[in-house]
């Protein structure tokens, strides 16, 4: 399915308020599923704290002396109550603090994101709105009703400009809605969302940012 070169911009009343260009370099990229999987897996791994810790035999409290003599009791020989087979003893090969992050080149991260954005555009799951019609006062109810008419999916990712504090306050408590700034857009949040909604200001800033990165190569 070919990607459209333009996308309608919807105003606060749900009517067409113009259009935006969809650059081929951003929204016409072939999605590489194995690459996307690798990047998303690396992103989830990097989010792990890695602070899990189990105490070994040498870290448990308790006497280091033998609990009973070596011979003559008829029981198996034991060296310490801190051994793993005893209650309260150390853990064998237990987890220790570690860094789960994986090295992922920036070009791979960018390629995965652009592939997902292109896939959303081809599936008509990419939307651009002029605004949420909120004015100067936040309104979660207004934002919910408007967003429901624009993006029918259960999980919606909304990308806004950093200056749009009214939209952020109105959207942040909606169930199934995740809000990001345009410079925070990432593969994981796109892949777990059914619909992707940009405000026009955020869309323009994102496209301009990508174009600037291409020019520096």
Structure description:
By secondary structure, this protein is α/β, with parallel strands linked by helices. It folds into two domains: 6-48 and 103-215, Ribosomal Protein L4, Chain: A (3-Layer(aba) Sandwich); 52-99, no CATH class. The protein is built from seven helices and six strands; from the N terminus they run E-E-H-H-H-E-H-E-H-E-H-E-H. It has a six-stranded mixed β-sheet. Helix 4 crosses helix 5. The two termini are 29 Å apart.
Q: Give the name of the CATH superfamily of the largest domain.
A: Ribosomal protein L4/L1
Q: In whole angstroms, how far apart are the ends? A: 29 Å
CATH class of the largest domain: Alpha Beta
For the residues shown, what is the average pLDDT?
90
Number of domains: 2
Task: Give the spatial strand order of the biggest sheet.
Answer: 2-1-3-6-4-5
Q: Please tally the β strands and state the result.
A: 6
What is the H-and-E element order? Answer: EEHHHEHEHEHEH
The class by helix and strand makeup works out as alpha/beta
Shape: elongated
Largest sheet: 6 strands, mixed
CATH-derived topology of the largest domain: Ribosomal Protein L4, Chain: A
Uncertain ranges: none
Q: What is the count of DSSP helices, taking H or I runs of 4+ residues?
A: 7
* Radius of gyration computed on alpha carbons: 27 Å
User: In the CATH classification, which architecture of the largest domain applies?
Assistant: 3-Layer(aba) Sandwich
The percent range for strand residues is 5-15%
Helix content: 25-40%
């Amino acid at each position: 399915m070919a990607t459209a070169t333009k996308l309608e911009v919807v105003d606060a009343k749900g009517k067409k308020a113009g259009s935006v260009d969809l650059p081929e370099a951003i929204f016409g990229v072939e999605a590489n599923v194995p690459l996307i999987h690798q990047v998303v897996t690396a992103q989830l791994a990097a989010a792990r704290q890695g602070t899990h810790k189990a105490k070994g035999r040498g870290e448990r409290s308790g006497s280091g002396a033998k609990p009973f003599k070596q011979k003559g009791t008829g029981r198996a020989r034991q060296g310490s109550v801190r051994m793993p087979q005893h209650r309260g003893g150390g853990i064998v090969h237990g987890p220790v603090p570690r860094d789960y992050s994986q090295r992922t080149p920036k070009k791979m991260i960018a390629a995965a994101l652009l592939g997902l954005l292109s896939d959303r555009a081809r599936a008509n799951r990419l939307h651009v709105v002029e605004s949420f019609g909120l004015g100067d006062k936040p309104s979660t109810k207004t934002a919910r009703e408007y967003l429901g008419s624009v993006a029918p999916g259960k999980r919606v990712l909304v990308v806004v400009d950093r200056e749009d504090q009214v939209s952020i306050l109105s959207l942040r408590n909606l169930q199934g809605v995740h809000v990001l700034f345009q410079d925070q857009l990432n593969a994981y949040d796109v892949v777990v969302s059914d619909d992707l909604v940009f405000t026009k200001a955020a869309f323009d800033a994102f496209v301009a940012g990508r174009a600037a990165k291409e020019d520096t190569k």
